[in-house]
Inverse folding.
């Protein structure tokens, strides 16, 4: 259960990082980010394997690059379901899925090891570097 909660928090932090790096991804607040992360996790567990199986010939022909399109589709579906979470544009969805996937894979890779506390601390430090006001603060607009 702790592993699931840890993965959910990592995915939430990845959503915040993607929204900070890309202007086309907006998150209204932490509630929207938590719901978006939960919905994205459920879709990735249920719908993504079916889509990968259905698009297997295309995926083989593109040497797995079509998976990026599937991940972007998952992100666009989540933005259509969750109010307060928006992804505008095709390329923004692709880059957002790439950022979220890389962040999640780099951190989840170390879940089985004994470095959970260190990885959690490093993720928190990265989030504070990327968003100095924290996850709950609002962006400061300099005019």
């Amino acid at each position: 259960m702790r592993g699931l909660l840890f993965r959910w928090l990592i995915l939430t932090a990845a959503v915040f990082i993607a929204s900070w790096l890309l202007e086309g991804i907006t998150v209204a607040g932490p509630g929207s980010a938590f719901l978006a992360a939960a919905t994205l996790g459920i879709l990735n567990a249920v719908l993504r394997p079916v889509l990968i199986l259905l698009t297997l010939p295309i995926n083989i022909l593109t040497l797995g690059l079509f998976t990026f399109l599937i991940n972007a589709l998952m992100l666009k579906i989540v933005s259509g379901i969750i109010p307060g979470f928006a992804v505008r544009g095709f390329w923004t969805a692709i880059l957002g899925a790439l950022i979220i996937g890389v962040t999640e894979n780099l951190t989840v890779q170390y879940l089985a090891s004994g470095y959970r506390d260190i990885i959690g601390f490093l993720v928190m430090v990265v989030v504070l570097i990327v968003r100095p006001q924290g996850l709950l603060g609002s962006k400061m607009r300099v005019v």
Summary: The longest strand covers residues 25-27.
